User: Fold Transporter from Notoacmeibacter marinus.
Amino acid sequence: MIITAIWPVFALILIGFLLRRTAFPDPAFWPAAEKLNYFLLFPALLVLNLSKAPLDDPAILNLGGAVLATILIVTAATALIARMRGWNAARHGPLLQGLIRFNTYLGLAVAASLGGPDAVARAAVLMAIAVPTVNVLSVFALAGGRSVGLRQLIRPLVRNPLILACLIGIALSVSDIGTPPYSGEILDFLGAASLPLGLLCVGAALKPDTARRETVAILANSAARLLAVPALAFAIGTLLGLGRTEMLVLVTFTAIPTAATAYVLTTQMKGDGTLMAGLTTAQTVLAVLTLPLALYWFV
Assistant:
């Protein structure tokens, strides 16, 4: 059941990869498609689902606590290993992002396939908590011992359309305003286009050549990300008494590959961009095998 539910997700990623490799429809199409999705379609999906999310449900709070605890524990462990191994910030930053960041398109697509609208609403709440958290932690890791100014820390957050969409959706839910009249249908149409296009863009962004560099480090990081981190999340979720839908969302978002956008932040802060691209590509390919296993074991 798990494989039959999620295979179309990876099929779209493969189609995107093949389209990009054959230069169809045009190389310039993919950056424009990613931009359209990032700034319009995907935020519409988040606003719509968060505006209807039951934010007063205690299960939502437990889910948020579980993902936050998982992120912080993994971050602390990675910092300790970085100190022991003598990693500089350029290396520490990508390796941490390989463990705590996640591909939002893939996560929501899998949650929708396996859990339906309830899982999507809870996934949107998880993103509202996790996205700003991992962004801040990633900036600190890439900065190393350098001083991080408030402007440098805040700018990626206030300019992130996903975070802004989460804030708008939460405000609409908490205030009981909901979406304005007739806007829900528009958001629904925009959001429906987001995940298929996003998955195609994930495939188009894969760079197989980069995964051949530092094979041992990439495989070790990928194994930790795709198997060890969801195991830790499952343990924390069990302690907090998460229900099946919440556990599905938690395990899904901790067992999917890291975000392709991590490459942009890494290069902007002079981190090892090639390593980050290799991690993203390797994890996406390996997740075809590991994600069904993680979901089977832990959900």
Q: What stands out?
A: The CA atoms of residues 70 and 232 lie 7 Å apart. The mean pLDDT is 92.
